[in-house]
Design goal:
Blueprint: H1 16-27, H2 31-38, H3 45-49, E1 63-71, E2 74-81, H4 87-99, E3 105-106, E4 112-120, H5 125-134, H6 136-145, H7 148-152, E5 156-167, E6 170-180, H8 187-205, E7 208-214, E8 222-229, H9 231-234, H10 237-252, H11 254-274, H12 279-290, E9 300-304, E10 310-317, H13 331-340, H14 345-368, H15 373-387, H16 395-404, H17 410-423
Antiparallel strand pairs: 1-2, 3-8, 4-6, 4-7, 5-6, 8-10, 9-10
Helix pairs in contact: 4-14, 6-8, 10-11, 10-14, 11-12, 11-14, 15-16, 16-17
This protein binds nicotinamide-adenine-dinucleotide.
Length: about 425
């Protein structure tokens, strides 16, 4: 094992080439590896260097298109960025099962974000509350002065709520500033507002303010979608029964609910990444919302209609934007948004909710019938063949045999390769 010293003084001040050179020297990179680092794809290296710190390269993932989606009577081709096999296929399949019954119906989504201001060391919480409510107009005015554009086009801070919490450091008053961020994800917008209003709030309250930042638990930005999935296309009554059983399992068991929700996020995060949105924010919000009742629960619900078709519903907070953040900077995200053809952040969330529901149904259908390994492993077999060192021209042949014999393992791939090489 190579021993290195990770304390590299001033790494951040170096140019990308200088940082790459350090890696070259430290890890003795071969020509192919050096080429990989130099390949920024459709990105201009300088543009990348301004996005995060200590940039040394660019990292690509596949983008696929989920088909068959009809949402609120409009057809969509949904770009998905994900490395996991079978996800795009499962979403497209489930969308087909719903399409037969009119597709997905997604509800209105308000683009309202919550920004938290933590007021501590208060002598009289009730008096502070009264004072803060009295001065609401001025506080909202200061907030809105931070983003006149947003305000002009109909968004901005419009109200706040006060929450009292008991903590190990005594009682705290938490102000939830409510901001309509329109087509943005809104983190920067609301963080700026919270920081700007805090000195005035501190003065009014005679307390001490520490944190001023959005909550990723976006309970004012809930997306809901519903669809009927055709019983016969799903595979018949047995499969529907299996899905209902899987749902009941998830309702009662957080171990299962976590995996159930992971399946939903396979779709939602793939669209989040494709459109240049913040996947960490979406994940954090979704899982916190799933446990809001005190028990971690599935984010979807299932039932059957009179004909035995499956009715699915999803409810999830979605802070997604079509403006701001990376959405307009990343060339592929711009293209993904063009393909998606959405006109607002609300419409993007409506699509994402429908996709999450479809993804969940796709996975549950497979689990309730043949199991997910077959679909997964068919694609995965190619990766296993590669891992086993199978040359490019033999991958297809080796992968097919792995699947046919239902032994998708590296050792078996090596065995097949040896046999093939002996024959040639
Ligand atoms: P942003 O800072 O780019 O702000 C969007 C801007 O677009 C606003 O100034 C707004 O006035 C303007 N705008 C123009 N037309 C608009 C319209 N129709 N609707 C809405 N705004 C319009 O982006 P943002 O959305 O405030 O911040 C998102 C970024 O913040 C993401 O990259 C995210 O990763 C990052 N972030 C996240 C967190 C977190 O989630 N905890 C914390 C900090 C930063």
């Amino acid at each position: 094992m190579r021993k290195i010293n990770s304390e590299i003084s001033g790494f951040y001040k170096l140019t990308i080439e200088e940082r790459q050179k350090i890696l070259n020297d430290l890890f003795d990179l071969n020509q192919d590896e050096r080429k990989l680092l130099h390949n920024f794809g459709y990105f201009n290296p300088n543009q990348m260097d301004t996005l995060i710190e200590n940039v040394v390269g660019s990292y690509q993932l596949p983008m696929g298109i989920a088909c068959n989606f009809k949402i609120n009577n409009k057809d969509y081709l949904i770009p998905m960025v994900i490395e996991e096999p079978s996800v795009v296929a499962a979403a497209s399949n489930a969308a087909k099962f719903a399409r037969k019954h009119g597709g997905f119906h997604s509800e209105k989504v308000n683009s309202v974000m919550i920004s938290q201001i933590q007021i501590t060391q208060l002598k009289d919480i009730n008096a502070t509350k009264e004072k803060l409510l009295e001065h609401k107009e001025k506080i909202l005015k200061i907030a809105n002065e931070q983003d006149p554009t947003l305000n002009e086009i109909g968004g901005g801070a419009f109200d706040y709520e006060l929450r009292e919490i008991n903590t190990g450091k005594g009682k705290m008053l938490i102000l939830h500033l409510l901001v309509n961020v329109l087509d943005a994800m809104g983190a920067n917008v609301v963080n700026t507002m919270a920081e700007a209003v805090s000195p005035y709030i501190e003065e009014l309250s005679n307390g001490k303010i520490y944190l001023r930042i959005l909550s990723n638990l976006a309970t004012e930005r809930i997306a809901k979608s519903k669809a009927t999935f055709d019983k016969d296309l799903l595979g018949g009554e047995e499969v529907v029964e299996g899905i209902l059983n899987a749902y009941e399992f998830a309702l009662e068991d957080p171990f299962r609910a976590t995996t159930h929700n992971k399946g939903i996020m396979n779709g939602i995060i793939a669209l989040t990444l494709a459109t240049g949105n913040d996947a960490r924010a979406i994940e954090a919000g979704a899982h916190a919302y799933a446990s809001l009742s005190g028990k971690y629960k599935p984010l979807t619900k299932f039932d059957v209609d009179k004909e035995g078709n499956l009715i699915g519903e999803i409810e999830i907070p979605l802070a997604l934007g079509i403006i701001g953040g990376m959405t307009k900077i990343h060339p592929m995200a711009r293209l993904a948004l063009k393909i998606l053809n959405v006109k607002s952040a609300e419409e993007l969330s409506q699509v994402a909710a429908a996709l999450g529901l479809a993804q969940n149904v796709g996975a549950l259908r497979a689990l309730a019938s043949e199991g997910i390994q077959r679909g997964h492993m068919t694609l995965h077999s190619r990766n296993i063949a590669k891992l086993a060192g199978v040359p490019e021209d033999l991958i297809e042949e080796v992968a097919n045999k792995l699947v046919k014999d239902n032994r998708i393992r590296v050792d078996y791939a090596k065995e097949i390769l040896n046999d093939l090489l002996k024959k040639k």
